[in-house]
């Protein structure tokens, strides 16, 4: 890691569809206003704290600003009510309404960030890039879901057993205000039979920005059909397939992932010889 970054933790209030939410945010080197902004979108059970220090590492190496935040229902953000069930379209709502509201609350709505998504966060990044192409510079999507596979459902069912019969709830309590509400919102909707029809492939042709689609060869939550499906439809897509890597490249192979991301981000900003 190249030095330390200025990290600013904030809670911001947003209003989405008539309801108020407090959202936990961490801004990395916000003073670097002339540098790219990377927005990190966590997985289905993630939060600001669960990223650990990897966003800081990447932003330092890439000389970028960063925004890390916990979505509604995660981390220290507003928990979901116990009687609220997430709909099949919950990721669409995050992309269309919540993500723009968070950026606006932080005064970042006029920027064109680079988005890095992981798992559910990748699907949200893909949807956002399709819905708001003019507001997206590029997206890097790790272990994305564009449709539901049997391997995904099987692994989520195993996660359910682990949550019921191991110390996983105690571990999650370190990272979420209410770990039970967080876990069951995600687990219940993915195991709902209606969710088997969830599919975002029809949105992919609307993506105009460069895409880096990343997946571990040993991903237990999806096959390479996910990133290959993106590559077939979105012409400006580069594939990054990582050996000896499961569902979380930033944990399993951070050096390889960082190298791929730095090359990708650098390609977005070719060096101008006249500025040397």
Write a compact overview of the structure shown.
By secondary structure, the protein is α/β, with parallel strands linked by helices. It has helices at residues 54-62, 90-105, 120-131, 150-165, 168-172, 179-190, 225-233, 249-252, 254-268, and strands spanning 7-16, 19-28, 37-41, 65-69, 114-118, 138-142, 211-216, 237-242.
CATH fold-level label: Rossmann fold
Tell me the number of helical segments per DSSP (H or I, 4 or more residues long).
9
Q: Nearest-angstrom radius of gyration?
A: 18 Å
Output the helix-strand order. Answer: EEEHEHEHEHHHEHEHH
State the helical fraction: 25-40%
Mean pLDDT: 95
Head-to-tail CA distance between termini: 25 Å
Structural class: alpha/beta
**CATH H level, superfamily name:** Alpha/Beta hydrolase fold, catalytic domain
CATH class: Alpha Beta
Overall structural domain count: 1
Strand content: 15-25%
Please state the overall shape, judged from the principal axes of the Cα atoms.
Answer: globular
Q: How many distinct beta strands?
A: 8
Placed side by side, the strands forming the largest sheet appear as 1-2-4-3-5-6-7-8
Biggest beta-sheet profile: 8 strands, mixed
CATH architecture: 3-Layer(aba) Sandwich
GO cellular component, one term: membrane
Keywords: Hydrolase
InterPro entries: AB_hydrolase_1, AB_hydrolase_fold, AB_hydrolase_sf
GO molecular function, one term: hydrolase activity
């Amino acid at each position: 890691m190249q030095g330390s970054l200025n990290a600013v933790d904030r809670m911001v209030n947003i209003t989405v569809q008539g309801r108020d939410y407090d959202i936990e945010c961490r801004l990395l080197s916000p003073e670097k206003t002339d540098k790219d902004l990377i927005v990190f979108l966590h997985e289905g059970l993630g939060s600001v704290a669960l990223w650990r220090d990897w966003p800081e590492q990447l932003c330092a190496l890439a000389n970028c600003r960063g925004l890390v935040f916990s979505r509604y229902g995660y981390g220290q953000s507003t928990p979901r009510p116990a009687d609220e069930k997430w709909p099949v379209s919950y990721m669409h709502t995050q992309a269309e309404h919540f993500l723009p509201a968070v950026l606006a609350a932080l005064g970042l709505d006029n920027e064109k960030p680079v988005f890095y998504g992981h798992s559910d966060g990748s699907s949200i990044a893909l949807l956002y890039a399709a819905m708001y192409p003019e507001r997206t510079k590029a997206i890097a999507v790790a272990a994305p879901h564009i449709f539901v596979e049997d391997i995904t459902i099987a692994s989520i069912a195993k996660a359910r057993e682990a949550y019921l019969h191991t110390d996983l709830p105690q571990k999650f309590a370190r990272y979420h205000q209410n770990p039970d509400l967080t876990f069951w919102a995600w687990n219940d909707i993915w195991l709902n039979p209606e969710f088997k029809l969830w599919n975002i492939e029809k949105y992919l042709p609307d993506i105009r920005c460069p895409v880096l689609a990343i997946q571990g060869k040993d991903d237990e939550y999806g096959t390479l059909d996910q990133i290959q499906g993106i590559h077939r439809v979105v012409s400006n897509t580069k594939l990054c397939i990582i050996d000896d890597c499961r569902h979380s490249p930033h944990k399993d192979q951070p050096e390889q992932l960082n190298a791929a991301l730095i090359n990708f981000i650098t390609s977005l900003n070719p060096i101008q010889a006249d500025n040397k």
